Amino acid sequence: MSFVMTAVRELWAMLDLARIPIGIFSRDDASCYEWLTRFLRSIPEVKDVRPVYISRDGLADILCEATCCDLAILYHTKNRGRINITDVTDSLYDKELELLFQVLGRQGVMVLIDDLEHGGQEDKIRILTHQPKIRTLAQDLVLITAQEKESYSGNATGSHLSHIEGMLRHLRDIIRARGKRKYLKRIFGLSLASLLSLMLACRVVPGMKPVIFNLLLQSTETQAALSKMRSPGNRAVRRFPAFLCVIRSGIQCGAILG
């Protein structure tokens, strides 16, 4: 049965590799965005959160760290005095933002500005108008006010709390979408031999079916797929990975023939 265990290990490794490492790049100490680190680590699709301090002339370090990440968040706090990300006098992240874009692409980069007095849509438009490279080099700009961050820490309630929760849900959705793409790439990479081994194991090995199901269910994307697959007449099933459909059919056949 070594071939079955090899297939199970391959499946487990692919599911683990589908989780995404995230880097937080900033000229500020990691303690400034500790709340953000905690939030990111609470997302199942996140494998690791890497705080990366941007030092003077540290582009080589940024390049090295960026290649280890699937998503980069460029963090800046208004406590420094100005919102000077790029395109302005004494901007802090011109080269750094460009480098992250070159390594990860626009969809792999986000900019988050913290400790603002105001963080509404008008403020976002104003920043993007005066610093257009943010829109060009990053997929989104997230604004967090000091009051919102305080409310998220449990020290306040009301509109500030609901707004930051909405922003964090948006950030989480972006991360999950990126994790989904990586998951599909990994799952389609499962070898045919391993796929056939898993299907055979479901039929002939006692107790193997729930083991494989548990491995598949490590992915929240798989949970959603299986949930929709159970709905009779749901046309959306055709949009889910063929691998999942085959596994489901194999398990069902194993249950019927076994």
What does this structure look like?
The protein has 12 helices and 5 strands. It has 258 residues and is α/β, with parallel strands linked by helices. The protein folds into 2 domains: 77 residues, no CATH class; 165 residues, Rossmann fold (3-Layer(aba) Sandwich). It has a 5-stranded parallel β-sheet with strand order 2-1-3-4-5, sandwiched between helices. Strand 3, helix 4 and strand 4 form a beta-alpha-beta unit. Helix 1 packs antiparallel against helix 8 and helix 3 runs parallel beside helix 4. The radius of gyration is 22 Å and the shape is elongated. The protein starts with a helix and ends with a helix. The C terminus is likely disordered. Keywords: Membrane, Transmembrane, Transmembrane helix.
Furnish the topology, listing elements before pairings.
Layout lengths: L1 H16 L2 E7 L7 H8 L4 E8 L5 H8 L4 E7 L16 H11 L4 E8 L4 H10 L2 H5 L2 E6 H7 L6 H30 L3 H13 L3 H9 L3 H10 L12 H16 L1
Parallel strand pairs: 1-2, 1-3, 3-4, 4-5
Helix pairs in contact: 1-8, 1-9, 3-4, 7-8, 9-12
Chain-averaged pLDDT: 74
Strand content: 5-15%
CATH architecture of the largest domain: 3-Layer(aba) Sandwich
Number of folding domains? 2
Strands ordered across the widest β-sheet? 2-1-3-4-5
Keywords: Membrane, Transmembrane, Transmembrane helix
